[in-house]
Amino acid sequence: MQAEAVPAYEMFIGGEWTPSRSGRRYQVFNPATGKVLAHVPKGDGEDVNAAVDAARKAFEAPAWRTIDPSKRGRLLYKAAQLLRERLADFAKLETLNNGKPLGQAKGDVAMAARHFEYFAGLADKIQGNTIPVPGNRLDYTLKEPLGVTGHVVPWNYPLVMAARSMAPALAAGNTVIGKPASFTPLTLLKFAELCKEAGFPDGVVNVVTGGGEEVGGALAKHRDVKLTALTGSVETGMKIMEIASQNLSRVVLELGGKNPHVVFRDADVGKAATAVLNGIFTNAGQMCWAGSRLLVDEEVKEEVLQKIVEGANRMRLGDGMKPDTAMGPLVAESQRERVARYVETGISEGARVAAGGAPPAEEGLDGGYFYRPTVLDGVTQDMRVAREEIFGPVLTVTAFKGDEDAVLKANDSEFGLWAGVWTNDLRRAHKVAGMLEAGIVTVNEEPITFPQTPFGGFKNSGNSSEQGMEAVLAYVRTKNVSVNLD
Ligand code: NAD
């Protein structure tokens, strides 16, 4: 039997499939099997220069620069429509490359389409003001696109994060260069091709693949890249901000989290337990807003913990392509090792493993990068597992006593992305929501977001908000025009 050929992808620059200047390539893997899935160009600064050149020319060309903004919106709609038509193909590719269950990947592709649809509607509503000034003058502001923007995205939601970041930039009239994470470049490459088909002029949507520093760093450093948007880790965010400071170019940072579910004694305990399970084990816990810290009133702690442990033990691990899989593998062996190291650290710090704590023993999973849904009980605020982002299927459990203690513990973190409040007391819900140091708070439900609601972190979780109308403001500059009418 002939071995199946491994597909080779190229980068997407100036509307063309383009090999890397150096000719170097690397392999990407299916994390459920450990098998090679594709070959991809290993781009570097030279490729970034070529992409920026193409994007700058496209930005300056009348076909994009002077386009009717509502037509720009229709291009975004068209891309969303094509994505919906090919949802099954994109979802399959995402599952094969990232490992997540197919149902979750389908949700991701639909969400990517939603981001394009939402910002499509905004394309002709980005407007300035007239400002009353002394004398016989007309004073007004213009909101102009910046030029070329770079979008560096992570591997946990490869297509959605790229779509979420690029959509407002395109709606505002910029041209974009996407830089997917090295592990998961495939859906974004296909999406760039789809944007061409939707009618975006060549060079408006580009994708360069390769390493973080070589490609992401080169983008942030380039004088013609006017904004670099990173969805990624705090460490990378700091690096990008430092590099971009050399040009005083803008940075939009959506970074990590160590997010608390705060469950009060008057909460619906069953609902809370289900939400906590989903909030940490969806996407194998590889989520910036994973509810990775359970803070629970000491009075109901044992009841909540028992439900969560039962749920974690029931969860079926497997290849994301199988319909009964609830949790897929981690994205790479290095990520699994990181999770295992954190669990060992937690144990050595005094935490107790209430569920999981090891790779699965089931047959058929040995080729992939699986790790069992894990619950660490008896975790105290000083432990590393309570403070650092593990980015895997590990929940820490800490008891609290009273509202003040709950809020203190929830806010005792360098991160501030998401927090969940569980209570049936309306006053407590609003009061605590107001006191939490987090950019996103949900009350009595799982982490939830929509393209029209802002998504951004406080503290080390980021410096801005994506989604919602505000997101577009990062991608425009304000020009004031004063006209003397005498
Ligand atoms: P990462 O920071 O390692 O990588 C993110 C992207 O940055 C990748 O494309 C990578 O190649 C690139 N990169 C890495 N080093 C770079 C450098 N020196 N210069 C420029 N670019 C560089 O993060 P990751 O491991 O891919 O993703 C996980 C992180 O992303 C977690 O911390 C998670 O919380 C965060 N995240 C945040 C959000 C959010 O909306 N706040 C969403 C998803 C993921």
What is the topological layout?
Layout: E1 11-13, E2 16-18, E3 25-30, E4 35-41, H1 45-60, H2 62-65, H3 69-85, H4 87-98, H5 102-122, E5 137-145, E6 148-152, H6 158-171, E7 175-179, H7 186-198, E8 205-207, H8 212-221, E9 225-231, H9 234-245, E10 250-254, E11 260-263, H10 269-281, E12 293-297, H11 301-314, H12 333-349, E13 352-355, E14 374-377, H13 384-387, E15 394-400, H14 402-411, E16 415-416, E17 418-422, H15 426-435, E18 440-443, E19 458-459, E20 476-484
The structure holds nicotinamide-adenine-dinucleotide.
Residues 152-157, 161, 179, 181-182, 212-213, 216-217, 230-233, 236, 239-240, 254-257, 288, 389, 391, 417, 457, 462 line the site of nicotinamide-adenine-dinucleotide.
Provide key terms for this protein.
single chain; alpha/beta; Aldehyde Dehydrogenase, Chain A, domain 1; 2 domains; seven-stranded mixed β-sheet; five-stranded parallel β-sheet; 15 helices; binds nicotinamide-adenine-dinucleotide
